[in-house]
Amino acid sequence: MDGSGDKHGNAAGIVESRRQESLLKTGALQSAIFNSANFSSIATDEKGVIQIFNVGAERMLGYAAAEVMNKITPADISDPNELVTRAAALSLELDTPITPGFEALVFKASRGIEDIYELTYIRKDGSRFPAVVSVTALRDDRDAIIGYLLIGTDNTARKEAEEALLKAGALQSAIFNSANFSSIATDAKGVIQIFNVGAERMLGYAAADVMNKITPADISDPQEVIARAQALSVELGTPITPGFEALVFKASRGIEDIYELTYIRKDGSRFPAVVSVTALRDAQGAIIGYLLIGTDNTARKQAEEALLKAGALQSAIFNSANFSSIATDAKGVIQIFNVGAERMLGYAAAEVMNKITPADISDPQEVIARAEALSLELGTPITPGFEALVFKASRGIEDIYELTYIRKDGSRFPAVVSVTALRDAQDAIIGYLLIGTDNTARKQVEEERKKLDQRLRDQQFYTRSLIESNIDALMTTDPSGIITDVNKQMEALTGCTRDELIGAPFKSYFTDPQRAEAAIKLVLSEKKVTNYELTARTRDGKETVVSYNATTFYDRDRTLQGVFAAARDVTERKRLDQVLQEKNVELEAAKSLAEKANLAKSEFLSSMSHELRSPLNAILGFAQLMECTTCPRAVSRCAARAASPAACASASPTPARACRRSRSGSCSSPSTASARKLAARRAPASAWWWPNGWSNSWAARSAWTASSVWAACSGSSCLRAAPARTHWPATPCRRIAPLAPRPGQHSLLYVEDNPANLRLVEQIIARHPDIRLLSAVNGSLGVQMALKHLPDVILLDINLPGISGHRGPGGPAHDRRPRASPSSPSAPTPCPTTSKRPEAGFFRYLTKPIKVASSWRRWTLALVVAAKPLARRPPGSHAA
């Protein structure tokens, strides 16, 4: 019994001992929590007034315990808006109205409901922090609430962690789904399982093209993969196969791996990528795949190259002989004086470093002027000197200005200076850098440009003056016909100002817009237009006829610019042309009247000349007969004297003036040769001249049917005269040879309307009994006799009454019979040329007055020709 009791006592002691230890540990834990600086423990009475404010609360909230105990409630250090929100939420949740304030903080705890919530505490200094608050009701032995305990922890870290996790998750999601990152997930063997949108955009493949088909090594530069495998083999001391293993080897060993690689797109183009590789593991840590996240590194590569270039450029600028780089300390004393500064200013670096400031090598007047200008601009007094050169830079204001530098030898040159403040890590100014360039060339260029600009302005003024001084209205248009420029004359022509004309259609200022528009189109197609008439109209309706001349014009590159046109006022010229046209009509009428009067005069003179010469021709003929006849010498001399003036008067178109009476009363005249020369001058042999108004048409044709044609014959000697009834003393004279004997008798038809000439021919033929003479006094009778007797030779006067000799018997006609006899016309005028005779249809021509000897020779030849058969006659002897 005693033994069992001891055992039970020992067991109970052990349990009690353990309970007491547990209580001690709980008390110690509570005491540790209550007094911990990491927990704010705030105990209140049943009304909420703070009774305990531990160290943690003091640290978190910044209040001392004495500042809050018995003074405020926990609601006074909480966000009031959150209290209002919590009261509203609890009222809805517990279906009872809860007052915003301390009640809202402890309502659940007062009902015995566990209550842990988040709340924002407000520190003494006004700053805020999130807290997790646990509320417990303190009760006495009768379970009555005697207060509340609010234990709070600073939730800032957890909030930040949560936000970081959220951000990380969002970032991961954004990265994975971003078009800016290629996310490629593979299985353990490297076969692609996921190919995101960014990978599709970067590489040009669709996800279906690569998933479960290829590895990332297949879209990587093979040479770089081989090089990476070799480098990793050396680095890690293990052989690595070129291919996918080389891309993920480090990640498979748990080594962080980010490297650069060239990806190859579907179209074969390449781009640099930065690839981050992560091994994907299951719950047991086994690798189930790999994630390769890549970014296009092209921009960074370009930026790096740009930085390298910029660094090289800065180095080149600083060390260049074309830039003066002068660095000073904070007070302006020169510390660096580069090669460019030495070359520009003529100082050696040792001569200026730690001795002078840049103000000492600058124009002092410009430094003073700059100080004054900056003082006015920035509203603060600035001392002339180095401060004026760097004041803006010292205030962080970009400053580039022009300044005149003075060389060691005293010469000057303009410089453009850029000033930068040099600062240390704490942003304090430790000096200044002044980079200057020689501005002489630019200044010279500017001066030249100013001169060129002035010359251009002068040239433009000169050109404009020429345009404005032109008497024509000048304008230019673009190819569509819109006016681009005009001169004053164009303004006057249209009644519009230059501003009104420019930009307006060219055609709008003419009475016929379609014709004006057609003019522009014509110029564009033909390159130019001259004397194109248009009528311009002013605003008030005044119209002006202009002669429009235009051409296309081009710029230096031979690009068509438009049309250049000149319009000249031709109103006065048009009026003068009209007047001239009217005068021409009047002159034509006067000319016609004068020609009619002249024709009447010519006809009158021709008629008078014929009437005067006809008797003289007969006198001359009879005189020749008397001269060639055996007669007394006195009679022959008188006949010769009569023949000379008669021939002169007959050959001259003005017989009254051809002879003059001598003192003795006799008529004297020029010799026969002189008369012939005079006649030739008055009427050339190659021209027709019929003084009696006879027709000069050789082409006249009629329906004459004479069987014979006329011809003039010629002989070698004078015709022997028949025995004279009166015997005169014989005198030596020329004789006319008789016609050769011929069976039968020759017949000769003479058509002549002048009885005297007819009697003369009768006298000549009477001396030749072997020739029978037939005569007719007009053309009609001559035709009848020619058809009836068929004479061997027809001699006719060209100027026959009623019918012209050209159309008379034997003249050119439609002959129903074979032509046998030659014909010859006689005319009191020089004959046509020999070449014209066959064309006229005559064998020979004779001129009046008849010369007995020469006429007889021609008649004889005509009779000889007429006696020959038709086939053996010479060409032209029988031409009609």
Ordered list of secondary-structure elements with their pairings:
Layout: H1 2-35, E1 39-45, E2 50-53, H2 55-61, H3 65-68, H4 80-94, H5 102-110, E3 115-122, E4 128-139, E5 145-154, H6 156-177, E6 181-187, E7 192-195, H7 197-203, H8 207-210, H9 222-236, H10 244-252, E8 257-264, E9 270-281, E10 287-296, H11 298-319, E11 323-329, E12 334-337, H12 339-345, H13 349-352, H14 364-378, H15 386-394, E13 399-406, E14 412-423, E15 429-438, H16 440-469, E16 473-477, E17 483-486, H17 488-494, H18 498-501, H19 513-526, E18 528-537, E19 543-554, E20 560-569, H20 571-627, H21 633-651, H22 655-658, E21 660-661, E22 667-668, H23 672-682, E23 746-751, H24 755-766, E24 771-776, H25 779-789, E25 793-797, E26 823-827, H26 837-840, E27 846-847, H27 852-867
Parallel strand pairs: 23-24, 23-25, 25-26, 26-27
Antiparallel strand pairs: 1-2, 1-5, 3-4, 4-5, 6-7, 6-10, 8-9, 9-10, 11-12, 11-15, 13-14, 14-15, 16-17, 16-20, 18-19, 19-20, 21-22
Helix pairs in contact: 4-5, 9-10, 14-15, 20-21, 20-24, 21-23
Question: What would your notes on this structure say?
Answer:
The structure is a single chain. With 880 residues, the protein is an alpha+beta fold. Helix 4 runs parallel beside helix 5, helix 20 runs antiparallel to helix 21 (633-651) and helix 21 (633-651) packs parallel to helix 23 (672-682). The termini are far apart.
